[in-house]
């Protein structure tokens, strides 16, 4: 079965991103870590700032349910610029045209693209006969085992420094309605990821593999395991995000995902006199 992109489907996907980001911030701030994240909430939109290196520093959902006005953009820009950080908006191509018109007039710059993928779980069948026995849900007392594997993978290494702050990864582990999934090889936590289920939408994210364990098929196996589990739990759609042209893109296409749309990240520097690139 082929899913056809329309405003309703795009809204559902973007709203799922909003829900996930908010649950992440709540888990982060409720855990008593040494750091915290801030968010700015609108009707069907959310802006997040979790520190200069936080990967979810962005505004999502803007323009999906109503036109965008100057007042909203003023709030978003003040929110980010107060941290000396560029205002960041992730734009869905089905957002209201007012979003692009206003951001163009206010000096926003195109920074990057990302792919959002969707899968009809009702029609999906696994390619493999059985799940990979090395993959399972991580236990509560395995938080740091999972966290270190995820952080090492994102850092393109096998081990993270003892001084590295892992609050963000720990928040991912503790998110509401989410399951941390771990892949073990010879007793080592080699890879992991998150499966979040909200209503009938399953979201796969934070997939990461330690450097020495790549090309072992672990990401493919993690995708397969999470899709099977989500379908068993009654989810009807699955989504995932990848960088264009990445190994992850090829893996999700092999799993049966179809490209829903391409999002654009646009940014407005905190100071017009300085470059925001390389921050």
TrEMBL record:
Gene3D superfamilies: 3.40.630.30. Residues 133-279 form the N-acetyltransferase domain. This is GNAT family N-acetyltransferase. It comes from Tigheibacillus halophilus.
């Amino acid at each position: 079965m082929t899913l056809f992109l329309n405003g309703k489907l795009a809204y559902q996907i973007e709203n799922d991103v909003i829900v996930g980001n908010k649950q992440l911030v709540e888990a982060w701030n409720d855990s008593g870590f040494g750091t915290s994240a801030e968010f700015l909430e609108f009707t069907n939109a959310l802006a997040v700032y979790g520190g200069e290196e936080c990967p979810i520093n962005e505004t999502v959902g803007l323009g999906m349910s109503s036109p965008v006005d100057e007042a909203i953009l003023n709030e978003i820009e003040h929110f980010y610029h107060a941290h000396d950080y560029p205002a960041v908006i992730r734009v869905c191509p089905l957002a209201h045209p007012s979003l692009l018109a206003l951001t163009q007039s206010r000096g926003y710059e195109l920074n990057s693209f990302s792919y959002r993928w969707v899968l009809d779980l009702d029609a999906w069948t696994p390619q493999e006969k059985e799940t990979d026995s090395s993959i399972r849900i991580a236990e509560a007392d395995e938080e740091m085992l999972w966290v270190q594997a995820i952080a090492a993978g994102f850092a393109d290494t096998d081990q993270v420094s003892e001084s590295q702050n892992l609050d963000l990864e720990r928040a991912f582990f503790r998110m509401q309605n989410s399951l941390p999934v771990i892949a073990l090889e010879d007793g080592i936590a080699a890879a992991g990821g998150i499966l979040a289920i909200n209503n009938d939408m399953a979201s796969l994210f934070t997939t990461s593999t330690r450097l020495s364990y790549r090309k072992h098929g672990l990401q493919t196996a993690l995708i397969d395991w999470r899709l099977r589990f989500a379908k068993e739990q009654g989810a009807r759609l699955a989504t995932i995000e990848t960088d264009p042209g990445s190994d992850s893109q090829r893996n999700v296409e092999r799993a049966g995902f179809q490209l829903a749309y391409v999002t654009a990240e646009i940014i407005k520097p905190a100071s017009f006199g300085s470059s925001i690139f390389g921050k």
